[in-house]
Every structure is written in C-alpha cells, then in structure tokens.
Amino acid sequence: MDHAAVLALYDRDMREGARPESSDARVERTGGVVRHVGGEDGWSGVLWSDLDASDADAAIAEQIAYFTGLGHEFEWKLYGHDRPADLGRRLVAAGFTADPEETLMIGETADQLVDAQPPEGVRIVPVTDRAGVELMVEANEKAFGRDGSWLRDLMDARLSSDPDAIVALLATADGVPVSSARMELLPGARFAGLWGGGTVEAWRGRGIYRALIAHRARIAAERGYRYLQVDASDQSRPILERLGFAPLSTTTPYVYTGGDRRRG
C-alpha cells in the first residue's frame, strides 16, 4: 500500500468529498470547510478543512455561529496532518473540548477475507430490528462501561431511514450478548468504515474481534469497497497492525457544546 496516496484518497473521498450519512442529513461546503449537518439524532461536525494561520480563527468562529444557530452540539474532526499545525490549540481556545486521540488505520478489504471463525459456542448474527439493537446496546455497555443510549438512537435512526448504509453485528454466547460491531457503507465511497468492535472482558482475546472484522470485510467486498477504515484506540491499534492495517494519521474529536460538556 502506498500510504501517502491512500491517505490523499481518503481525504478526497471521505472528507472533502463527503456524502450525507443518512437521507435526512446534508453536507455543505463553505469557504475552506466541509461540514456535515446531521438529521434527527445524527452527527454534526466539520469533516475537512483547508485553512492556514490567516483564516483559521475566522473559520472556527463561523462554524460555531452556524451550528449553535441550529441548536446543534458539533464536533470538529481534526486529523494529525491538517493545517495549520496549531489548529487543535485554536479550537480549544475557542471553547472546544478534545476527546482522546485515535489512529486512522486503513486496510485492504481483500487482505481481510480470511476464514476467521468465532470461538466455540459464539454466534455472529445480524442486527436488523429493535430487539437486536437492545442486545447490541447491552453488549456495548458491558464492553465499554458507559451508557449506550447514543448507540440505540443511532441504530434506530439508521435502520428506519437507511438500512442499506449500515451493517450491524452481534456476537452471542448461549444467547447472551458478548460483543457487537457495525460498518458504515456510504454509496460511491471506496472506504467502508468499521466502528465498535467492543467485547466484554471475559471474552476478550478469543478471536471474536478478528471474526467480526472478517465478517464485515466479506460484506464490504461483496458491495465493492476496496478499503476498510478504522479510528483505532490504543487498545485496538496493535491488533489491527498485526492484521495488516496501516496507521496513516491520527484523529482527534474536538467537541463544542456551547457550555458545559455533556458526557454519557
């Protein structure tokens, strides 16, 4: 893989050339910024920017005014190769709060088409209805130790409006949810986004995470996606590197709430 070329393609395909994530969302291009305006329960934020020291502060102020005018909490998704180099500092000075940094990792879909089976007694099943969503939320809450109501809202919205744009999977052991994961499939894109992949502690290290990646890779290949993309935590990065994913940049969510940061 030509890392620089693939990173440039990712920027053009998924950021500068972004598509709405749902039928009730929209993408807007204004000046040197591409922003995503989410629909009901959807994500809003800045996906891409082409700024320098002379216009960054004005662009930040413009996005704050725009999204707060809509009543939206929003995120500025900053990548390690974005400019100006001090954009993160400027965002914090303007009232944003930084979440933990993650690593943008890209893998060839074809490299993940392996026969990776879950451990004995574990089944991987698709999530297509509200009952499955509730089990997915349960697995997510147990895996990450935090409230999963945001996942319920996201899945309910996607399954009702754009079911073909999301693949959700649940791993169960004797009917008990032990892991979950999802994949975003934007029409016309070359990158399928892998999200989640959280496994409850007692089941970690047994191959469930690997099986979920392979399962999603097969679906992505069938639908014509050449690359798989992950925003990897420090815990998942070494696993993904062993599987052949390449770290191409970092990504940090800077969140603006207009007041106290709400967490949950």
CATH architecture of the largest domain: 3-Layer(aba) Sandwich
Overall pLDDT: 93
Any idea of the CATH topology of the largest domain?
Answer: Aminopeptidase
Helical stretch tally: 7
- Give the overall form: globular
CATH homologous group name of the largest domain: Gcn5-related N-acetyltransferase (GNAT)
Radius of gyration: 18 Å
Domains, number: 2
The stretches of 5 or more residues where confidence is low (pLDDT under 50) are 259-264
What is the helix fraction of residues, given as a range? 25-40%
**Which percent band covers the strand fraction?**
25-35%
Query: What's the total number of strands?
Result: 12
Distance between the termini: 38 Å
Structural class: alpha+beta
Largest sheet: 12 strands, mixed
CATH class of the largest domain: Alpha Beta
Order of helices and strands: HEEEHEHEEEHHEEEHEHE
Description:
The model is unreliable at 259-264 (pLDDT under 50). The chain has helices at 3-16, 56-70, 87-93, 130-144, 149-161, 208-222, 237-242, and strands spanning 26-30, 33-37, 45-49, 74-79, 97-98, 102-108, 122-126, 166-173, 176-184, 191-199, 227-232, 246-256. A hairpin with a 2-residue loop joins strand 8 and strand 9 (176-184). The protein has seven helices and twelve strands. Helix 4 (130-144) runs antiparallel to helix 5. The longest helix has 15 residues, at 56-70. Helix content is 32%, strand content 30%. This is N-acetyltransferase. InterPro entries: Acyl_CoA_acyltransferase (IPR016181), GNAT_dom (IPR000182). Residues 122-264 form the N-acetyltransferase domain.
